């Protein structure tokens, strides 16, 4: 194994005083020591600068740079300009990472320097809910030929009805010089959903990537997070986003195989944006069977990931539906206000139906087989369809 390569961790900072200390402490405590941390302050007017300067004094690996406010893309580019490493990672100032996060993502690169990208999952935290999102393209190493075969799933994996590669710069390690080239294709005016087009463009230019079955990045959604706010004039950025996707896909000769996914992504962006303007969420919702909407129903939810959380939140709105238990095979690693248990509990429960809320089709079939082998009647096992709607 080669010597551990240095990696630059770029942290864009803009008025994150309330959360910044937690973020920087998680970076400082990384088990992977060969790092530099670039704190790029995009014109903060709160106490963020003081927090940054404090950690710079006690840890030489941290550097602080201030600039006038100019937005997310220019701030990331500034971090790239001053970085001194061949590889870079991005961490938002209101998020945090597990102590082995950088070590885990850099391990494949230290073993194979041909890798241009290592991508992993995100652990979402929103109020009292938590779930893990992972890339919906199979785990493994993809060379140039294999990448071309999955490009029609990178933006949106229709079969899985979700993003192919998570539309976030977080949870990833990039090669610096390739990312610099990537930004030359990105419209600097974009203010929303810019991560998706950046990741897609980067993968179009990559020759070898690794998709990991790991999640060590805590993506924390606060009430004041950018994802929860939008202005009327931000709608115009979606047109810029659409044009950017089209330009990039044509530049790399993949337009014909990706245009359906581009259309899907842009339509979702418009729907989300318009909904927020009216104070609505545009969510995938389960179609609750008519029989469940009538009379008393005792239900077991199987799956405590993103879909399981969405299902529970939806079922909580029905006064006649009582959630008897919440089951997940990985229950020991899940912490919820509502306790999650293992599959062995099902045999002791009395219920009218068990709803499987899992994204991976292969896993769904495995769960159904397991339930049937336990003697659960097939008529009690439900897979519910989902559709987008305003709520």
SSE topology sketch:
Blueprint: E1 7-13, H1 17-28, E2 35-41, H2 48-58, E3 62-66, H3 72-82, E4 87-90, E5 96-97, H4 101-111, E6 117-126, E7 129-133, E8 140-143, H5 144-154, E9 172-175, H6 176-183, H7 194-205, E10 208-220, H8 236-251, H9 255-277, E11 282-286, E12 297-302, H10 306-315, E13 321-327, E14 353-356, H11 361-373, E15 381-382, E16 386-390
Parallel strand pairs: 1-2, 1-4, 2-3, 6-10, 12-13, 12-14, 14-15
Antiparallel strand pairs: 4-9, 5-10, 6-7, 6-9, 8-10, 11-16
Helix pairs in contact: 1-2, 5-9, 6-7, 7-8, 8-9
List key phrases describing it.
ten-stranded mixed β-sheet, 391 residues, 16 strands, four-stranded parallel β-sheet, 23% strand
In brief:
The chain has eleven helices and 16 strands. It has 391 residues and is α/β, with parallel strands linked by helices.
Please explain how this structure is put together.
The protein contains eleven helices and 16 strands. Helices cover 35% and strands 23% of the residues. It has helices at 17-28, 48-58, 72-82, 101-111, 144-154, 176-183, 194-205, 236-251, 255-277, 306-315, 361-373; strands at residues 7-13, 35-41, 62-66, 87-90, 96-97, 117-126, 129-133, 140-143, 172-175, 208-220, 282-286, 297-302, 321-327, 353-356, 381-382, 386-390. Strands 1, 2, 3, 4, 5, 6, 7, 8, 9 and 10 form a ten-stranded mixed beta sheet that branches. A four-stranded parallel beta sheet has the order 13-12-14-15, with helices on both faces.
């Amino acid at each position: 194994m080669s010597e551990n390569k240095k990696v630059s961790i770029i942290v864009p900072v803009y008025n994150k005083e309330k959360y910044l200390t937690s973020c920087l402490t998680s970076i400082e405590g990384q088990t992977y020591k060969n790092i530099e941390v670039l704190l790029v302050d995009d014109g903060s007017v709160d106490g963020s600068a003081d927090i940054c300067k404090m950690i710079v004094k006690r840890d030489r690996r941290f550097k602080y740079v201030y600039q006038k406010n100019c937005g997310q893309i220019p701030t990331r580019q500034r971090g790239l300009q001053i970085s001194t490493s061949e590889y870079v990672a991005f961490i938002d100032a209101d998020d945090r990472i597990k102590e082995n996060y950088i070590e885990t993502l850099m391990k494949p690169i230290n073993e194979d320097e041909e890798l241009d990208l290592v991508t992993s999952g995100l652990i979402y935290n929103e109020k009292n809910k938590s779930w893990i999102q992972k890339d919906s393209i199979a785990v493994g190493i993809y060379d140039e030929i294999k990448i071309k075969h999955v490009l029609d799933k990178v933006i949106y994996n229709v079969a899985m009805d979700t993003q192919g590669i998570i539309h976030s710069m977080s949870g990833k390690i990039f090669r610096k010089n390739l990312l610099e080239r990537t930004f030359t294709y990105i419209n600097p005016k974009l203010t929303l959903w810019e991560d998706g087009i950046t990741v897609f463009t980067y993968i179009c230019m990559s020759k070898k990537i690794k998709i990991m079955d790991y999640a060590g990045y805590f993506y924390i959604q606060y009430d004041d997070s950018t994802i929860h706010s939008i202005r009327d004039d931000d709608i115009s950025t979606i047109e810029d986003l659409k044009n950017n996707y089209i330009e990039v896909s044509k530049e790399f000769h993949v337009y014909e195989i990706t245009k359906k996914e581009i259309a899907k992504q842009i339509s979702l962006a418009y729907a989300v944006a318009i909904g927020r303007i009216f104070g609505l969420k545009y969510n995938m919702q389960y179609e609750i069977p008519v029989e469940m909407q009538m009379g008393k129903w005792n239900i077991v939810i199987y799956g405590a990931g993103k879909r399981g959380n969405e299902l529970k939140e939806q079922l909580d709105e029905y006064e006649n539906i009582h959630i008897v238990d919440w089951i997940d095979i990985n229950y020991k690693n899940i912490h919820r206000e509502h306790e999650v248990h293992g599959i062995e509990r099902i045999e002791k429960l009395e219920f009218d139906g068990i709803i499987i809320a899992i994204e991976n089709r292969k896993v769904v079939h495995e769960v159904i087989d397991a339930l049937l082998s336990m003697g659960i009647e097939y008529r009690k096992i439900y897979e519910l369809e989902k559709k987008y709607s305003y709520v």
